[in-house]
Amino acid sequence: MTEQPHPDRLVLTVEQVSAGGVVFRKTNDAIEIAIVQIADELRWHLPKGLIDAGETLEQAALREVREESGIHAEIVGLVDTIDYWFYAEYDGVRRRYHKFVHFFLMRSLDGDVGDHDHEVVESRWVTVDDALAMLYFKTERDVVATAVTMMGN
Fold first, then answer.
1. pTM to 2 decimal places
2. Per-residue DSSP letters for 33-62?
3. Distance from C-alpha of 134 to C-alpha of 125, rounded to nearest angstrom
4. What's the pLDDT tens digit per position in 116-148?
5. Based on the number of CB atoms within 10 Å of its own CB, is 90 exposed (0-12), middle (13-18) or buried (19 or more)?
């Protein structure tokens, strides 16, 4: 017999959509990727964030990349959409989240990785190999690997 959850213990499920990018630049015949370390987690991530009302996925991805990494970029194409589940308590209410993140391949135009917003501890350019070693989540490492294939390298 399977135990049924008590109605008072049911957790609301919320769908959340974010967008971000694998931002690259070529220097000395090498490709570098911009990665960020978020203040409350101290883990390395690709720049990404929630979509604001009225934004397209592309607009949100470009804005989040600019805010978190300090880089102005242009979109080359969609790399992948990943999804995952997590629990969090915001405003005193525990919820289950089903998050979708749309990652775009982006070419760096200009900007400074030191010009990131307050949510980010550090933004930096790293080689593809270093990005693959430093990124915390396997799904983001997979996104970078796919992006590199899209670049033709």
1. 0.88
2. EEEEEETTT--EE--EEEPPTT--HHHHHH
3. 12
4. 878 889 899 999 999 999 999 999 999 999 999
5. exposed
Residues 6 or more apart whose CB falls under 8 angstroms from that of 17 comprise 50, 51, 57, 99, 100, 101, 102
Helices and strands of the chain, counted as H and E runs: 3, 7
Domain ranges within the chain, ordered by starting residue: 10-151
| Chain Cα centroid distance, residue 82 | 10
| C-alpha to C-alpha distance for 106 and 64, rounded to whole angstroms | 12
Query: In residues, how long is the chain?
Result: 153
Q: CA 75, CA 148: separation in Å to the nearest integer?
A: 14
Residues 52, 60 contacting (CB under 8 angstroms): yes
- Which CATH superfamily hosts domain 10-151? Nucleoside Triphosphate Pyrophosphohydrolase (3.90.79.10)
Tens of pLDDT, residues 63-96: 999 999 999 999 999 999 999 998 988 888 889 9
